[in-house]
C-alpha cells in the first residue's frame, strides 16, 4: 500500500506539473523575462471575470479576449455583461466579478463611502479618454434650444420641472452634466430634477418623454439621433479635451491578493487598446465585434461613426473630431494620473457628496495603482509619462492641475 501511495503521489505531482507547465506555456517568453524579472510569478488566478456595461468604451475588455491577447499573458478574460452601474458596483464589491470596466468617479465614490458602502478600491489603468456626450430632446430643439445658453433661456422663460439623467450619482456622466449645466447658470440640484438611468435605457426613456436631456457614453447619443428623439448639445471632449472616463477597477483586496493576475490583465488590455487605435480598419473590426447582442447589442454603424470621429449632432452640423474616443494614444490614455482621480473628488465635494475636504493626494495615491501599471507598461513597451500628474484646461477656461484641490473645489460660483 505504501508503494502504491508513493506511486499515486508521484503521478499527482507529475499531472500538476504538466498542468502548470501548460498554463505557463501560453505566456510570452519576453513577458516572463520582463514584467516578472523582479521575482514575481505567473498569474495567481487564470480565469478572470471582467464586467462591463454596453458602451463603446468597453471595447478593450472585449478585444483583449477576442484577439487572444489575454492568453499571451497567461490569463483568460471572461467579459461579463451587466445591466447597470449599480450592478457593476455590487458584483465587484461582493467578489462575484473580479474586475470591471467602470466609471472613474464610481471607484472614488466607493473609496470615500458615497454611492455605496465604503470599500477600498484600486484603479489599475485608464481605459479611455473622451467619447461621451450630452443629448437634449427634440422637443427642446423645437422650442429653439441648441446649446447650453439657449437651454438656460428657455428654462428662465418657461417655468416647469426639467429632468436630466445621468448614469450613476458619483460617476463621470453625472460630473460632466453638472459641470456643463452650471457653466450656463443652471444649478443641477436647485433648477432641475436629476435622475439616474442605466446607459442602454437612455434612448427609450427620452422617447417616452421622461427626460429633457441626458449624459451618457456612446453609442447611445448616436442612437438618440438615429431614432430621431434627441440631438447632441455638446461632446464631453469639448468640455475637457482628453478627459478621464472609464477605468479598469478592482477592490483593493483583490489587487493585493492577485497582483500578478492584475498585471496580466492590464498588459492584455494595453495591447488591445493599442490595436483599436492603430488603424481605421481595426476600429471597424472592433465595432463589428462589440455590436453583437452579447456586448453592446446595436447596429455597427451606430458605433463605428463616432468611434472613427465622424460626428453629426442631429440638427444639421457634421464634423470630423480629432478628439473622439481614444483607447491608447501612445499610452497617454492609459496611465492612471493622480490628478485625474483627485478631480472627481473635487467635484464630489463641490456638489455636497463629500461633506469635508479629504486628503486628495493621499487618497489618489492609495487608489491609483501606479506601481503595478508601470510594470505592465514596461512589459508591453507602453510609453510612460514624466509625471504622475497632468494639467488640463476645461471649456470654461479653468485650469486643473491637482496642485490645490481644496481651493479648486471651493472656487466654483455654483455649487451645493
From TrEMBL:
Q: What is the lineage of its organism?
A: Bacteria, Pseudomonadati, Pseudomonadota, Betaproteobacteria, Burkholderiales
Please indicate if the UniProt record lists Disulfide bond as a keyword.
no
Keywords linked to the UniProt accession? Cell inner membrane, Cell membrane, Membrane, Signal, Transport
Q: Name one Pfam family in it.
A: NMT1_2
Q: Has UniProt tagged this entry with the keyword RNA-binding?
A: no
Q: Which residues, by range, are in coiled-coil regions?
A: none
Q: Where in the cell is it found?
A: Endomembrane system
Where is this protein primarily located? membrane
The record's annotation in Gene3D superfamilies points to:
Periplasmic binding protein-like II
Which species does the entry assign this protein to? Polynucleobacter wuianus
| Protein's UniProt name | Nitrate transporter
Provide one Gene Ontology cellular component. endomembrane system
Amino acid at each position: 500500500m505504501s508503494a502504491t501511495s508513493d506511486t499515486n503521489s508521484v503521478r499527482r505531482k507529475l499531472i500538476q506539473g504538466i498542468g502548470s507547465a501548460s498554463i505557463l506555456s501560453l505566456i510570452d517568453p519576453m513577458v516572463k523575462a520582463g514584467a516578472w524579472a523582479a521575482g514575481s510569478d505567473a498569474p495567481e488566478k487564470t480565469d478572470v471575470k471582467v464586467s462591463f456595461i454596453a458602451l463603446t468604451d468597453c471595447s478593450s475588455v472585449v478585444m483583449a479576449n477576442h484577439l487572444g491577447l489575454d492568453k499571451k499573458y497567461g490569463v483568460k478574460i471572461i467579459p461579463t455583461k451587466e445591466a447597470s452601474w449599480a450592478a457593476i458596483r455590487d458584483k465587484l464589491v461582493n467578489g462575484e466579478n473580479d474586475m470591471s470596466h467602470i466609471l472613474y468617479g464610481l471607484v472614488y465614490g466607493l473609496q470615500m463611502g458615497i454611492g455605496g458602502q465604503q470599500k477600498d478600491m484600486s484603479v489599475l489603468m485608464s481605459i479611455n479618454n473622451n467619447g461621451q456626450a450630452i443629448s437634449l430632446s427634440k422637443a427642446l430643439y423645437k422650442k429653439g434650444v441648441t446649446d447650453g445658453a439657449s437651454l438656460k433661456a428657455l428654462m428662465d422663460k418657461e417655468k416647469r420641472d426639467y429632468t436630466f439623467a445621468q448614469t450613476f450619482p458619483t460617476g463621470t456622466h453625472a460630473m460632466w452634466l453638472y459641470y456643463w449645466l452650471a457653466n450656463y447658470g443652471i444649478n443641477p440640484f436647485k433648477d432641475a430634477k436629476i435622475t439616474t438611468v442605466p446607459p442602454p435605457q437612455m434612448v427609450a426613456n427620452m422617447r417616452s418623454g421622461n427626460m429633457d436631456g441626458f449624459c451618457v457614453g456612446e453609442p447611445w447619443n448616436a442612437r438618440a439621433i438615429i431614432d430621431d428623439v434627441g440631438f447632441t448639445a455638446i461632446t464631453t471632449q469639448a468640455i475637457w479635451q482628453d478627459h478621464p472616463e472609464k477605468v479598469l477597477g478592482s477592490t483593493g483586496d483583490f489587487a493585493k491578493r492577485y497582483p500578478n493576475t492584475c498585471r496580466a490583465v492590464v498588459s492584455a488590455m494595453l495591447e488591445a487598446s493599442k490595436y483599436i487605435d492603430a488603424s481605421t480598419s481595426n476600429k471597424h473590426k472592433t465595432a463589428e465585434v462589440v455590436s453583437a447582442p452579447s456586448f453592446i447589442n446595436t447596429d455597427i454603424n451606430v458605433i463605428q461613426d463616432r468611434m472613427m470621429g465622424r460626428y453629426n449632432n442631429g440638427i444639421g452640423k457634421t464634423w470630423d473630431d480629432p478628439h473622439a474616443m481614444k483607447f491608447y494614444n501612445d499610452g497617454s490614455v492609459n496611465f492612471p494620473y493622480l490628478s485625474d482621480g483627485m478631480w472627481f473628488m473635487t467635484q464630489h465635494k463641490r456638489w455636497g457628496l463629500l461633506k469635508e475636504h479629504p486628503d486628495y493626494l493621499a487618497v489618489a495615491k492609495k487608489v491609483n495603482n501606479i506601481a503595478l501599471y508601470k510594470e505592465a507598461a514596461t512589459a508591453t513597451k507602453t510609453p510612460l509619462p514624466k509625471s504622475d500628474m497632468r494639467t488640463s484646461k476645461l471649456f470654461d477656461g479653468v485650469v486643473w492641475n491637482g496642485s490645490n484641490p481644496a481651493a479648486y473645489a471651493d472656487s466654483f460660483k455654483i455649487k451645493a
